[in-house]
């Protein structure tokens, strides 16, 4: 099979690279049924004639690619789960423990509402001044 990778594969005489992102689920079933492993688009091998294409070897390739596809499928949800766990651990550490999460949340919420009310009052005063300014200008 022709190699289209720019890396140096001269370190071994025979190798097999499996590319699970290029393999479909029907391709996996074909690996189990047919013997021509080296002609598959997701298998890159230097020794085409030396491949052991027994059922045990094909089963091992099938399980390897299936496991890689499942790991790729679970990569994004596991990444999000890890980010959530990290955020939770940081929240607990920054708030002084689990028991201080709720009081600090209430204190932060009250500070937020106070600053929001202050901004509302300032905005109301600005609009009132603007209204009087324009009203005096037209009279």
Q: Approximately how much helix is present in the residues?
A: 55-70%
Radius of gyration: 32 Å
Mean pLDDT: 77
- Supply the helix-strand structural class: mainly alpha
Uncertain runs: none
Overall geometry: elongated
What is the number of helices?
3
Strand order of the biggest β-sheet: 1-2
Taking the alpha carbons of the first and last residues, their distance comes to 90 Å
Instruction: Estimate what percentage of residues fall within beta strands.
Output: under 5%
Query: Count the strands?
Result: 2
User: Would you list the SSEs in sequence order as H and E?
Assistant: EHEHH
Major sheet details: 2 strands, antiparallel
Protein described:
By secondary structure, this protein is mainly alpha-helical. It has a domain at 1-74. Helix content is 63%, strand content 4%. It is built from 3 helices and 2 strands. A two-stranded antiparallel ribbon has the order 1-2. Helix 1 (25-33) runs antiparallel to helix 2 (55-94). The longest helix has 40 residues, at 55-94. The chain starts with 15 loop residues before the first strand and ends with a helix.
Describe the structure concisely for a colleague.
The chain has 139 residues and is mainly alpha-helical. The protein is 63% helix and 4% strand. Strands 1-2 form a two-stranded antiparallel ribbon.
Topology:
Layout: E1 16-18, H1 25-33, E2 43-45, H2 55-94, H3 101-138
Antiparallel strand pairs: 1-2
Question: Main traits of this protein?
Answer:
139 residues, 63% helix
């Amino acid at each position: 099979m022709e190699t289209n990778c720019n890396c140096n594969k001269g370190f071994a005489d025979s190798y097999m690279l499996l590319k699970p992102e290029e393999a479909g689920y029907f391709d996996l079933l074909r690996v189990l049924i047919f013997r021509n492993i080296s002609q598959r688009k997701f298998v890159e091998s230097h020794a085409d004639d030396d491949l052991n294409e027994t059922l045990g070897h094909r089963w091992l390739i099938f399980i390897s690619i299936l496991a890689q596809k499942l790991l790729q499928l679970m990569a994004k949800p596991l990444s999000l789960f890890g980010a959530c766990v990290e955020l939770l651990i940081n929240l607990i550490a920054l708030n002084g423990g689990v028991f201080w999460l709720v009081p600090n949340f209430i204190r932060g919420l009250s500070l937020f509402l106070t600053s929001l009310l202050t901004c509302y009052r300032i905005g109301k005063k600005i609009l009132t001044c603007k209204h009087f300014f324009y009203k005096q200008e037209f009279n």
